[in-house]
Amino acid sequence: MDMNEIKEIFFQECEEQLAELESGLLKLNDGDRDPETVNAVFRAVHSIKGGAGAFGLDDLVSFAHVFETTLDCVRSNKLEPTQDVLKVMLKSADVLADLTNAARDGGSVDEARSRTLIRELEALANGEVPAAAEAPASKPAVAAPKAAAPAPVVEKPAVNDEGFQPIPFSFGDFDEEPADRYVPTCQILFRPKKDLYAKGNEAALLLRDLSRLGEMSIYCDMDSLPPLDKMNPEEAYFSWKISVTTDKGEDGVRTVFEFAEWDCDLDIRTIEEEVVGEAANEEELPMQPVPFDLSILDEGGSTGSDEEPAVIESDAAAAVAAAETVSKVAQVASRAAENAKAAASAASAAQANQAAAAGQTIRVDLDRVDRLINLVGELVINQAMLSQSVVENDTNGTSSINMGLEELQQLTREIQDSVMAIRAQPVKPVFQRMARTVREIADITGKSVRLITEGENTEVDKTVIDKLAEPLTHMIRNAVDHGLEMPEKREALGKNPEGTVRLTAKHRSGRIVIELADDGAGINREKVRQKAIDNDLIAADANLSDEEIDNLIFHAGFSTADKVSDLSGRGVGMDVVKRSIQALGGRISISSKPGQGSVFTMSLPLTLAVLDGMVVTVAGQTLVVPLTAIVETLQPEASAIHSFGASQRLISIRNSFCPLVDVGRILNFRNTQANPMDGVALLVESEGGGQRALMVDAIQGQRQVVIKSLEANYTHVPGIAAATILGDGRVALILDVDAVVAASRGQSLRQDISLAATG
Amino acid sequence: MASKKAAQKSLSLAPVLDLNEATALHAQLMGLKGGPLVIDASAVERVGALCAQVLMAGAKSWEEDKQPFTFAKVSEPFMKTMQLIGVNIDHLLAQEARQ
Q: ipTM above 0.90?
């Protein structure tokens, strides 16, 4: 394993930790006061800091450190996680994410923003008297100039200008035990896990730092060490029993293991408490004293090329130096925090084990999965071809070959489903990104918004997830910027001044349905209508239903905002959203109630690799029409067909007229109009909610087809979404229903159709 | 880095025995199994716990094979780290290397 690989793993883990951090903070924001939630949040920041330290990412470390210090105050109940506090923390989580991204991909972060946040975090951490105990921990952060010296803040602990009131803290409970009267001995049980080494930590360096704390004796337990041929050189076999006599106490010892805490089993006890108990048998171990001068190891360490020992070193050294300057008050306070901390770490260790047992996962290159999916697609096609040729050649009817083929068919179907499931991922990461978008826009617009997400664990194909983020961001921006009213106005209307945006995902009949609802003003139909008239989108006297008016906002170049803001309102929003959703094979619809808000509903296919389609014949060509687009099929009767204008025809279905679209004509398969009576009409739902009847020559049947991209293999063909290979080995084109419908409205398929046809 | 010297083989350890070196060291030792081995640790500047584990596992295996496994020369950082992490190699030191 080289360093870059480890670094890549670190960043992947960072992403997970950041997600964990954000969901934890949101839980706290919702009033969750479970200590485990606080721990999870703390752990996330801590792990990021630890890893960043090992890779020498100073910016990240210093920010994470300040953040962690403040979180520690929450963890030890010194700071009440109020909404105001959490607002700062959520923003800090965003900055932490930015810093992580900057560290990975280069680029810069908003320095001013992180500086402000560091100040706010420090103000929170130092908002109370016992925060003195946090001061030494903040010391390593001085490496970065922006971490405004924490020491002076301790002198004036009441930082009122940030708006946070200090909470009086009583020392009465801890008076009876002055910490400096004896030098306690700590008994440490240190059992590293494999991860500790894999993350670039080194047990020997931890032990060296430990030996600096005071007089140390050590016993190395090699019992679990297997013989050479059975060992894994990167596994952790050694464990240590250590006793250190130090005036830094348990806290000093914990500081040494700070970066490694989650990757080892660590048990630290102070002997004084144990002497009465069961410490005696521990004493019998053949401890080796470590009383020598270690300076030679330092030189060895610093001549080494990688920077990690240096970082750990300076961190520890700073902590040691700082610890010496701490007043007695701080020691007493930290002893008080000790108990809470020990309990917390025990709980978190338990949780970590639980998490490990919960589900094992492996990381796989997406390319490999795609290759597998591709192969399975080929297998499905091949199986279809095989069964077709057997059926054609087999005149005996039920032969054993047929039986076997049916089983094969089931198997391939199952393989296909399981392979698709590999690519399926929960929508959670996208939803979490939206939380950040909401926060930022709420900040800019001065509105107070609460984002509620439901069904984050709904799974959908990774491609869909990746492409979902952009349209969702647009829509969320719109919902907050245009949908929700200002707090004062909401209050005047008798609504909760805090607006609600609800984002839900669910599975419905083989598709994923994502709903975005706000409780704002709803669409102002009068304004939309007027705007549409002004922009020449509709005629001034057009008679439109409410639904049709609502759908006007999806038109290109439409915006209801009076002035163009930074966020949205440039009039490119909703039509872009609609196009990207359609590009995913999805549909978007809107329903709005004045004064009560709007609901945008998106329905998307679960996968972009297979599609349920209706196989039809048009002018001798085989086409596939996506089943999701089809409302019903019907056999037109002569009496139902009406001519309209020069070449248009309408079909009357249950007393309403619907334009008849000749697919063969639009795709230039034939030059003359087909006779509707010879064919079949497919009633399809189209853009804007209207219905169209697509005319095809015959229906062959319904089939699940494997999608083969035309763009990747050939080039984009207007009116055609993709292609597939049928059982007889022929290529069939998949119809892009919306493009065909749009073409039937007069705006013919773009000119490049001729190029495509000849090219 | 193994060079044949009469019947017994010898292994000179690399200056930096960190995480990246553990697998290589393990492979080297595996290749030397079955005969007496003399290890030269005089160039070692830094040694991590993982490599210490490999060396100790080696010592264990050689002991099982009833073959001698000795450290001919050791550098000071090597000795000190071994002491630090509580691994006693006194019994593995060649006569002349003992102080």
A: no
